Amino acid sequence: MDYKELVVWQRSIQLVTDIYQLARTLPKEELYALSDQMKRCAVSIPSNIAEGSGRNTTKEFIQFLYIALGSASELETQLIIGRNIGFFQDLDYYFKEISEIRRMLNGLINALKKKEM
Prior knowledge:
Blueprint: H1 7-23, H2 34-53, H3 58-85, H4 92-116
Helix pairs in contact: 1-2, 1-4, 2-3, 3-4
């Protein structure tokens, strides 16, 4: 399976771009704090999808998809913190996109589990 053909990977790549743009709006003192964490989590989502797809077993792929799910939840948490501190206003797009990516990851995990049986 070519990971680049997975819609969840494609959407998570777009989310990385969007998060990098959002991070640019943070104050300079957040350059190595919240900004860095947000970018790392965002990059982790498609990276783990790609790495997992290149593994030898379906079980390993599923494990990396779970890591991607964790990174998506961590990113959402960081956005909530940023909003609560007053750095961000309208984050509806990001929350919807993260939710959709999580839904797609769960669907892929479930499909792979069924295939594994």
